[in-house]
Amino acid sequence: EHIIRVAFQNKGLKQDAFHNMSGKAALTAVDQKVLSKTKRLNASKHTTRTYQQRLDELKREYERIKPEGGSGAVSSSAWERKKEEDVMNLHALENRLEKTQFKSKEAENITSYYQKLKTQLQDESLTFQGQLDSLEAEILKYREELHSLQVMRDDAQLSEEAAKAAFQQQDELLSRERKERERAITSYRKIVEEHKAETGKTERSVKRTPLQPDELSSEAQHSTTRIPAEEEKAFSALEEAFERIKETTGATDVQEIVKRFTSQKEMHQHLEKLKKENEEALLQLKEQRELLIQRFEEEEYSGDAKLSCEQQKLEEAELQLQAHQQRCDSARERLDWLTTTLSTVTAGVEHLAEKLQHITLSTGRVTAQQPDSEEAVLELLAQCELQLQLLQKEFEGKDLTAIMKEMGEDEFYIRIEENLPEYNTRVRLPEAQPLELSDDAAKRSDEDEPGVLSREVLKRQSQLIVDSNLKKKTWKRKKSKFWPKEEI
């Protein structure tokens, strides 16, 4: 389609006529048109040449008749009308000749364009193999890179899944440890509060215990009247609390109980410190998790982008490879067609040379090229052109109709001799030198021998004999085809 569009760029109707054809069909159609137009050109040239010869004859006759001007006015007017008709016919033939020349030039331009296209395709076909190899190497490289990227993506997905699983396990472990620490802290707080309440009671009771027993007895004797009933209740409560602390802690001394409470306080502070450290570690792990998730998302996005870019490059390279393969196939088809046409042209030139080998040139042309080379074909074509020019010069001024008639008669006799059966042999008589007779003697001999057949009569009789033999043969074939042979 591109070739048709370029060849018929300024001719819309012709381009529409070749629109639905392939390149090869369009070329064959164009070649047929070119051949028909060249035939018409040759025919128009022949007719113009005959008209020119006729015009020259009429001019000579006019020059011969011109001195005889004393003829009547009727003959002069008829002559002028005939002359005008000849001039009009000559102008029409010249117009037709110009049209055919224009069309032949157009056909020559198309053939030159096709020759340029052929050379260009041949030059490109030399470099197609290297381009295809380079494109295949690039495609293999891109495929290897794509495979490596896919492996990297799979590894990244596996590492992401493993990191997610490890993070989930660590998160569950931290939540479990946090819950356990919270339970321990609440239990410790309850114990500390209980111990604080008990120590408060013991301290208040201890402040009153350091007195001696005799002093107590004396003081009790003096102050029995002064101690109210409420203080006695308080003392009794403190004593009960102190006894309970002793029972719970297992200590017998106040100092030991104080040491126990101080150690519990230190343990509480240590637990608070551990709680803060664990919370800080949990915050760090959360930050690390967010960083890992962000890095994973970035890697996934960059990997997908790179993978899509490589896939796009691979698709573009495959499209280029397909386009080059299509161009290579079309160039190969074009080259095959051109080789076939070249072989047919060479065969035609050789056939023409065989037909014209009886014509000898004045200057012998020596061909030093190989017989199968293109230069030898061109040399043979030039030789045929010179032989045709010599033949044209030889037939100038002769009656072509008479020559064609003689050639037809010779071909007729040759055909008759070829169709004769093998048993019908001709005996050649010794050739005798013909005696040169005068015209009067020839006329008398013709008049004296009226029974001798003429040449035209012999032709007709021989043609009738050949036709009758052919009809008999065809009838025998048909009869043998329809009727089976009799069994003996």
From TrEMBL:
The keyword Coiled coil applies. Residues 153-357 form the ODAD1 central coiled coil region domain. GO terms for biological process: cilium movement; outer dynein arm assembly. Residues 195-206 have a biased composition (Basic and acidic residues). Residues 195-226 are annotated as: Disordered. Pfam families: ODAD1_CC. Keywords: Coiled coil. GO terms for cellular component: ciliary basal body; ciliary rootlet; ciliary tip. Residues 90-152, 264-334 form a coiled coil. This is Coiled-coil domain containing 151.
